[in-house]
Design brief:
Shape: globular
Helix content: 40-55%
């Protein structure tokens, strides 16, 4: 009876600490809501919008599931876990889709406290787990990717592997067969939620395999665990793996089948390999670790493209201080967490299973800051363990037990506040805006009422998902479809002349749709009858009789015969793209046949300038001699061709004044008065479609007609 009461009290304590830690995590995330409660520009239809571009991908899938309307080839993720979970949540709860996607990250992300406290409870240090849960739930990188409004798979991407860590620790420490099933189901659920979970699952598997072979080969339980993990990790549909796992678990429960464990293990190894279990691991390493700056298509006509991974900050190297602060909030806290983890492993060897999470976190030093989030739970446990070890040591220094307890409590409270403070400070200072503002969304909502769901919007990939969600059209590139080969034509359209841009837009859209159809036809044909699907640019080059893609691109300035028009095409040109326009240009500033950069366009934007009367100092060593009309760039002087000033009337109509200074000048200067911004451009950038249509509204009536001309974004319809 006393044992029952003790166990019941322990359960109540665990539940209470989980509830408190969850409430802390969730409430801290509400700080953002408090800070921006009066920002109407962050709201649409009276509700806050989300603050991550990728979130609109999953939101699109949930929206389509709720409407029951699915458009062919629109890439809506209607079969993805995030969309389905959101769909189910909206169906069950009395809240709108917009409210659900805004608050869901705070709810799901806060679940991290559960496995952390359960792990500590297994080590009989539940109070330590409580501190670790508080720290992990608001650690810089974890908060950044699970904050309110950050609607993405990161909501559960660390929760699942931390639960997996918990079940594996208990499996090894207790050898209870229920953890065989729990572990396998966690792997299936994790893979369902996040298909890229292969590497972490395989790392866990490898550690257990090494331990079993080196230290406990006679214990059949470990090989049962390995078998269940492999069946759960196979490259087969979730439902198939679920059925197999249940069947194998039931078989293991039957004592008479005990001697067949090795046959089950052999079968799991064979099926794992045959189902492609190793391929995704290599793919992810190649994508983030062994990344190249140039992509080469394996087409009949090999072309070279600029790799997007060179421009994504998440995939870039970071310094150690940034690395440490993102994991633990402070460099000192991070170092202490590593010391604590080592001591914890020494005391509880099962914590070696935390190495895959810690290792993925360290991959951030080479693979980019996105990986730091993985090390958060392990480091939180490490520093919490160290602090409680120190507190126990301090208690032992006092003969007076009461005084020792008081000092211990004071130390724990103060040290806990010390490790939490930098992270709380970051939460308060991290005022991330919504992806789009109210006026931008209202413009897209108006476009949605005009455009059809089969129509396309040409825009840079950063805006692909929000455009698909609010305008409900198709896009050529987005946050998931943005390799060099598909980025090239969009970059070309935005950074080259209007005539070339217009023709390539029609070609790219029609060829994209044709590629979808060809891929579908190939699925129903024998391999020998299937059609090759080349990169669109390569296919166009060959179809128009060229053998050099650069010659084909030059021919876009001539009246080529274009494919029949099957849908409308719109160009979305936002002001917010101005800051990344040089990056956009990189994707088309190369010789496609050789991979060499063909031009280095000059594009300089500044809001830091000073007018001294005779000179206009633009900072960064760029100065205009107003009397001579000469632009000094470093030690070089070049003549200015145009000086243009733009502004808006009270009715928000663009007005511009243009002065030709040197007819043979090499650069143009544009002062955008409404934005208090100067642009300095060479001839190529000045005549680019983006500058002409957005900045100057000089649209070629043969190819474009304006649909919406707002100061923050402009939309044109293609006429050909």
């Amino acid at each position: 009876m006393n044992q029952y009461l003790t166990d019941k009290k322990s359960v109540y304590l665990i539940i209470s600490l989980i509830v408190l830690a969850f409430a802390f995590s969730f409430c801290v995330r509400l700080i953002w809501v408090y800070q921006f409660s009066d920002y109407e520009s962050f709201k649409f239809a009276g509700q806050f919008m989300i603050n991550t571009n990728d979130g609109y991908f999953w939101a699109e899938g949930a929206r389509d599931l709720l409407s029951g309307i699915f458009i062919k080839h629109n890439l809506s993720p209607i079969s993805e876990a995030t969309s389905w979970l959101t769909y189910a949540t909206v169906k069950v709860l009395p809240f709108s889709l917009e409210t659900i996607i805004f608050y869901m990250p705070a709810v799901l992300g806060s679940l991290i406290v559960i496995p952390i406290i359960l792990i500590a409870h297994n080590f009989k240090m539940v109070e330590m787990g409580f501190l670790a849960a508080l720290l992990a739930s608001i650690a810089v990188s974890y908060y950044n990717r699970t904050m309110i409004g950050y609607y993405d798979t990161d909501m559960l991407n660390i929760v699942f592997p931390t639960f997996l860590l918990w079940s594996l620790i208990l499996a090894l420490r207790t050898h209870e067969e229920k953890y065989l099933l729990i572990t396998a189901l966690e792997i299936i659920a994790y893979r369902w939620w996040y298909p890229q979970s292969y590497s972490l699952e395989f790392s866990y598997f490898g550690l257990i395999l090494v331990y079993a072979l080196l230290f406990d080969r006679k214990n059949i339980f470990h090989f049962k665990l390995l078998t269940m993990m492999l069946f759960a990790m196979m490259g087969l549909p979730s439902l198939v793996r679920f059925v197999i796992v249940i069947g194998v678990y039931i078989s293991f429960k039957q004592g008479k089948l005990k001697q067949y464990v090795w046959y089950f293990l052999a079968a799991s190894v064979i099926l794992f390999i045959l189902s492609g279990g190793l391929e995704p691991i290599w793919f992810r390493l190649k994508l983030y670790v062994f990344k190249d700056s140039i992509e080469i298509t394996q087409d009949i006509l090999p072309l070279h493209f600029f790799s997007v991974m060179q421009t994504v900050r998440e995939a870039g190297q970071i310094d150690f201080v940034t690395f440490a602060e993102r994991i633990s909030g402070h460099t000192i806290t991070f170092i202490l967490s590593l010391i604590g983890y080592v001591l914890m492993v020494k005391k509880y060897p099962a914590m070696l299973l935390g190495l895959p999470l810690l290792g993925l976190g360290f991959l951030a030093l080479w693979g980019g800051l996105r990986f730091t989030i993985y090390a958060v739970p392990v480091c939180a446990l490490g520093v919490a363990y160290l602090l409680f070890r120190w507190s126990a040591y301090i208690t032992g220094l006092f003969i007076n037990e009461r005084l020792g307890g008081l000092v211990k409590s004071s130390f724990v409270i103060l040290s806990s506040l010390g490790v939490l403070y930098p992270n709380l400070l970051h939460v308060i200072d991290y005022r991330v805006p919504t992806v789009m503002n109210k006026m931008e969304v209202e413009q897209l909502d108006s476009l949605r009422k005009i455009a059809g769901r089969e129509d396309y919007i040409v825009a840079w990939w950063d805006y692909g998902y929000p455009l698909r969600y609010y305008a409900d059209t198709k896009t050529l590139i987005d946050g998931g479809k943005h390799d060099g080969g598909v980025n090239f034509p969009v970059s070309f359209m935005l950074t080259n002349d209007q005539e070339s841009a217009a023709r390539l837009a029609r070609l790219e859209v029609e060829y994209t749709e044709k590629a979808f159809t060809t891929a579908e036809e190939n699925e129903t044909k024998p391999k020998e009858q299937q059609h090759d699907i080349l990169n669109n640019t390569a296919q166009m080059t060959l179809d128009y009789g060229f053998h050099d893609a650069n010659d084909f691109l030059d021919a876009l300035q001539t009246p080529l015969t274009l494919p029949a028009k099957t849908r409308e095409i719109y160009f979305y040109l936002p002001y917010r793209m101005m800051g990344i326009f040089p990056t956009v240009a990189q994707f088309s500033n190369m010789d496609l046949m050789s991979g060499k950069m063909t031009r280095q366009p000059f594009f300089f934007q500044t809001t830091q300038f000073k007018d001294t009367g005779t000179l206009l100092n633009f900072s960064s060593g760029v100065v205009l001699d107003k009397a001579k009309g000469m632009l000094k760039i470093g030690n070089q002087e070049v003549p200015v061709k145009n000086f243009i000033q733009t502004a808006y009337t009270p009715e928000f109509k663009l007005i511009k004044e243009q002065n030709v200074i040197h007819p043979d000048g090499l650069f143009s200067i544009i002062y955008m008065q409404a934005y208090n911004t100067f642009l300095i451009l060479d001839e190529a950038m000045f005549h680019s479609t983006y500058i002409q249509l957005f900045v100057l509204e000089n649209y070629d009536e043969r190819f474009f007609e304006p649909m919406s001309l707002e100061a923050y974004a402009k939309v044109y319809r293609l006429k050909i």
